[in-house]
Amino acid sequence: MEDFTALADLASRALGGGVVHANDEFFAAADHLVLPAAPGHTPKTFDHKGQVYDGWETRRRRGPGHDFAVIRLGAPGVIHGVDIDTAFFTGNYPPFASVDATALPGYPGPEELAGAEWVEILPRQGLTGDSGNRFPIGDGRRFTHVRLNIYPDGGVARLRVHGEVIPDPELLPKVFDVAAAEYGGRVVDCSNMFYGHPQRMLMPGRAQNMGDGWETSRRRDDANDWVLVRLAAPARLRFADLDTSHFKGNAPGWAVLTGITATGDQIELLPRTALRPDTPHRFPLAKGPEVTHARLDVFPDGGMARLRLLGRADRDHLWERMRQCLEP
């Protein structure tokens, strides 16, 4: 079975995820749950409420019930697994947790979410402190929100909700970035990711620094590096943004972009083209048939901050994928 942690974190703040409501966050705010960075910790760092934690921590419960936090997924989709990370919580982590999910249109608030129909996608499970706690999810429906329940109280550093992005076609323009992670674009193969994973190229916004992109090791042979992206839907591509921002002494010298059709035919979309360091490039692409994948070859190696592929997606494909995950 595929490692679900290789899939997008649908709850991540990097994709627009956020905490809508938490019943208690006395010691540390629930907003920490969806931060994209790994949790950190500085021992013996105290504020007016005690040790400072990079996570969500509730007070000690002295009555019945349990604590919970409701998270809006930044990218709605089918959840394949969750990681309830208790990093640095040792004597104060919850011994058990469960996860519920729901799908609602629009932008519901705490009151609407409280009255929603929730589905238990992860029954109550035991947790280990100061550790990742990974659980596969078998429900194939599309969800927009999750609810993390902890029993009875305690601290959780991060909640990762890994899955397949399923965008709402009603909210997509005719031409959009079909490689974008927020719409379901995904790296499925690459030659090298020594310094940075290529999936970072598909994230929203401009790269923050050289570490926020794809970078290969230095080649000492006659070959070149490449990455293969599965598009959010079959599409006719029109423009490519190849952004080498922050890569100054280590940008690729040239690039080629190839489209791959559903039958496996390869279409040259961008011939070998020179790139400049630390530069957002936009290139018009050769008109061709619908492609399901795009392969970016860089010569001979180097770093790429962002890859955008703008095109017209197959709307029927998007709607069919949406319909497939509306029922169990």
Labels describing this entry:
Jelly Rolls, 5% helix, single chain, 328 residues, globular, eight-stranded antiparallel beta sheet, 2 helices
Would you tell me which CATH topology of the largest domain applies?
A: Jelly Rolls
Gap between N and C termini: 20 Å
**Please, how many helices?**
2
Structural category: mainly beta
Supply the CATH architecture of the largest domain: Sandwich
The amount of helix comes to under 10%
Based on Cα principal axes, name the global outline.
Answer: globular
- Could you list the spans in which at least 5 consecutive residues all have pLDDT below 50? none
Topology (elements, then pairings):
Layout: E1 8-9, E2 18-22, E3 46-47, E4 50-51, E5 56-57, E6 67-85, E7 96-102, H1 110-114, E8 119-126, E9 134-136, E10 142-151, E11 155-156, E12 158-165, E13 175-177, E14 186-190, E15 214-215, E16 225-243, E17 254-260, E18 266-274, E19 280-284, E20 291-299, E21 303-304, E22 306-313, H2 315-324
Antiparallel strand pairs: 1-12, 2-6, 3-4, 5-11, 6-9, 6-10, 6-12, 7-8, 7-10, 13-22, 14-16, 15-21, 16-19, 16-20, 16-22, 17-18, 17-20
Structural notes for this entry:
The chain is mainly beta and 328 residues long. It has two domains: 4-165, Sandwich (Jelly Rolls), CATH 2.60.120; 171-315, Jelly Rolls (Sandwich). The protein is 5% helix and 42% strand. It is built from two helices and 22 strands. The protein has helices at residues 110-114, 315-324; strands at 8-9, 18-22, 46-47, 50-51, 56-57, 67-85, 96-102, 119-126, 134-136, 142-151, 155-156, 158-165, 175-177, 186-190, 214-215, 225-243, 254-260, 266-274, 280-284, 291-299, 303-304, 306-313. Strands 1, 2, 6, 7, 8, 9, 10 and 12 form an eight-stranded antiparallel sheet that branches. Strands 13, 14, 16, 17, 18, 19, 20 and 22 form an eight-stranded antiparallel sheet that branches. A two-stranded antiparallel ribbon has the order 3-4. A hairpin with a 2-residue loop joins strand 3 (46-47) and strand 4 (50-51). It is globular. The model has no long low-confidence stretch (mean pLDDT 96). Keywords: Hydrolase, Purine metabolism. One of its GO terms (molecular function) is allantoicase activity. It catalyses: allantoate + H2O = (S)-ureidoglycolate + urea. Its EC number is 3.5.3.4. It comes from Actinoplanes siamensis.
